[in-house]
Design goal:
Length: 630
């Protein structure tokens, strides 16, 4: 009877002494561990169930951590974490103080490169491989990239570069599960499907001379041990044309196929490309049947599966957006909705069903999404680009050059603005206010609740130029949302509470916390609604009868809305002391959203405490206040 157990695998070295049968036992245990563990913490499930054998094979064959593995996106790296000494820490996955859901260099020497935004792995391993070559190191560099991540331009920029870079040991493993978060889109997906079906080779046999143009030289053939697997002289795949030695497709759940193939590839130098086929959710029937639902679930009972809860009392901001989009699309046939591969997360499921010809999933291609929207706007369409704040960072030049500079009418619906919780710093939308407000022509709206979100979406949509509306991850506070498509005046703030001494200027959904603080302080509260254009008249008016200002935003303080107020006061030669509350100048780790906001002093107590610390003389005494406020 075998004594092999996952409990005894503390580093990949422990895998290297195992035979094939033992490795298969480890794979079964590892899959079960991933399922049980993720069901208790929440996290990315389907992708991790799909990479169990691939992870074991890679660590078995390659000499990690000396050899480098870069996990693209990194949401499939849990088996890797478990096999590299973090099995116990999986219990705190994505929780405050616990390990991250993504690879991080500071977390383990086995995490060769930090990932989370997709399609960076080939560039990163190429950089590493060139550095190894220059240092005379005989090291292997492996990028594991999914079929979804492979659709991004950046992956192709890297292939283009790697294919002609001399003397680099780069292995790209394409983990093809025929899924992105939602079903994959685009011509590359079709091409991969043709490779899998064998149709590519079969069709090629009939192409006659065209095939011969692609016949590799005898020397190359000798290098391609996989020639026997293909079993014939075949036309070059796209990846071969780009300078890679293409091998595959092989079954990514079959250790008997994976291990010898990787061993052979390890012996070869130069750019290698291995196409493996896996199943998202492999081994857990419910996830296999619905990999979208199990892509990134919260906690659930694995014996029962995810249970659909009854209709929740509070809508998420994403749902508010999704409904607004459908309503506005019904009212205006020029509206088109765009998502870069985030149909579910961005709230476009219903829109796709209702308006299939006006729905565009462009793949993981944020840059393209922005310029595509610009092109649509040129011809009189009204594009709404639904995009996470953090992913718009990818399309920054396109936003400036292809949209704002030409004053094109594109509405940016920025979801996940501010703290996002379990995904942490890589996904937090901290920077959009700072990077958007400096762009000429941009309108930057910061709705304070669900209804304001709808109102400002309509307002920005009707604005004939580029405009953005930012809203956070998760549910609002339960504010009823009107069904109208009314608009408000752009650049106009609204007074929410008239007080004395201190005026709290709120940009976004921290309004209830700021209001609660203001009630203790007797302060004025203004919902600023827009960072740009800023309501300068409101600021000037408030300055006449207040002695201090406080700005509150769930965004980076540096360059943020508070900075905009400061600039405006300075430009108007208004001298009022200003306290800026928002996100500090550091990356903020994963953890519960409310907990993080409270740690950052951005809940009602924290806001009051900061104001008292700074403007104590202007504040009324604390009556029966909790000790931490005194
Ligand atoms: C730049 C960027 N855009 C979008 C995402 C969101 N995202 C995370 S995983 C994923 C799908 C990736 O598909 P694939 O690479 O095939 O991996 P799989 O989920 O199938 O394992 C997407 C769109 C991201 N992480 N980075
Ligand atoms: C890995 C990745 O980028 C996505 O799966 C992301 O984690 C989704 O985040 P939401 O859960 O906020 O949609
Ligand atoms: Mg995939």
């Amino acid at each position: 009877m075998s004594t092999v157990s996952l409990d005894h695998i503390n580093t990949p070295a422990d895998l290297r002494g195992l035979d094939r049968a033992e490795l298969k036992e480890v794979a079964d245990e590892l899959r079960e561990f991933v399922l049980r563990s993720v069901s208790r913490t929440g996290g990315h499930l389907s992708s991790n169930l799909g990479t169990v054998e691939l992870t074991i094979a890679l660590h078995h064959v390659f000499n990690t951590p000396f050899d480098r593995i870069v996990w693209d996106v990194g949401h499939q790296s849990y088996p890797h974490k478990i096999l590299t000494g973090r099995r116990e820490q999986m219990a705190q996955l994505r929780q405050a103080g616990g390990i991250s859901g993504f690879p991080r260099r500071c977390e383990s020497e086995y995490d060769a490169f930090g990932t989370a935004h997709s399609s960076t792995s080939i560039s990163a391993v190429l950089g590493m491989a060139v550095a190894s070559r220059n240092a005379g190191l005989d090291r292997q560099h492996i990028a594991v990239i999914g079929d979804g991540a492979m659709t991004a331009g950046m992956a192709f920029e890297a292939l283009n570069n790697a294919g002609v870079t001399p003397d680099v040991n780069v292995l790209v493993v394409l983990n093809d599960n025929d899924m992105s978060i939602s079903p994959p889109v685009g011509a590359l997906n079709r091409y991969l499907a043709r490779l899998l079906s064998g149709g590519f080779y079969a069709a090629a046999k009939n192409v006659g001379k065209a095939v011969l143009q692609h016949v590799p030289t005898m020397l190359e053939l000798a290098r391609r041990f996989e020639g026997h697997a293909k079993g014939m002289v075949s036309p070059a795949t796209l990846f071969e044309e780009l300078g890679f030695n293409y091998v595959g497709p092989i079954d990514g759940h079959d250790l008997d196929a994976l291990i010898p193939t990787l061993e052979n590839l390890k012996a070869l130098g130069g750019p290698q490309f291995l196409h493996v086929v896996t199943k998202k959710g492999q081994g857990y029937k419910l996830a296999e049947a619905d990999p979208v639902l199990y892509h990134g679930p919260g906690k659930f009972d694995p014996d029962v599966g995810i249970q659909k809860s009854g209709s929740p009392s509070r809508q998420t901001f994403t749902q508010v957006f999704g409904r607004w989009l459908c309503d506005m699309a019904a009212a205006d046939e020029r509206l088109v909705g765009i998502t870069p591969a985030m149909r579910e997360g961005s709230g476009l499921v219903q829109f796709e069903q209702q308006f299939p010809t006006r729905y565009f999933d462009v793949g993981i291609a944020e840059q393209h999404a922005v310029t595509f929207a610009g092109g649509l706007a040129c011809e009189g369409q009204k594009p709404v680009l639904a995009i996470y704040s953090t992913f718009l960072q990818r399309g920054y030049d396109q936003l400036i050059h292809d949209v704002a500079l030409q004053n094109l009418d594109v509405t940016f619906a920025l979801d996940r603005a501010g703290i996002v919780g379990a995904d942490g710093a890589t996904h937090a939308g901290n920077f959009d206010i700072a990077f958007l407000r400096c762009i000429p022509n941009m309108v930057v709206a910061t709705p304070s609740d669900e209804n304001e979100t709808r109102l400002l979406l309509s307002t920005c949509y009707q604005h004939p130029g580029p405009a953005s509306v930012r809203y956070p991850r998760g549910a609002g506070r339960g504010v009823a949302v009107s069904e109208s498509l009314d608009t408000v005046e752009i650049g106009k703030a609204i007074m929410r509470r008239e007080g004395r001494g201190i005026a709290i200027l709120v940009f976004g959904t921290l309004l209830p916390d700021a209001t609660q603080a203001a009630e203790s302080l007797g302060a004025t509260v203004v919902d600023m609604r827009f960072v740009k254009p800023l309501d300068q008249a409101m600021l000037a008016g408030l300055a006449e009868n207040h002695t201090a200002f406080v700005t509150v935003e769930e965004a980076a303080i540096m360059g943020g809305a508070g900075s905009a107020v400061l600039e405006s006061l300075s430009a108007q030669s208004i001298q009022v002391p200003l306290l800026m509350l928002g996100l500090p100048d550091r990356f903020i780790d994963h953890g519960d959203q409310a907990f993080i906001l409270s740690e950052l002093g951005l809940d009602a107590r924290g806001i009051e405490r900061s104001i008292r610390e700074r403007f104590g003389a202007l504040c009324p005494p604390i009556a029966e206040a909790p000790a931490d406020l005194k």
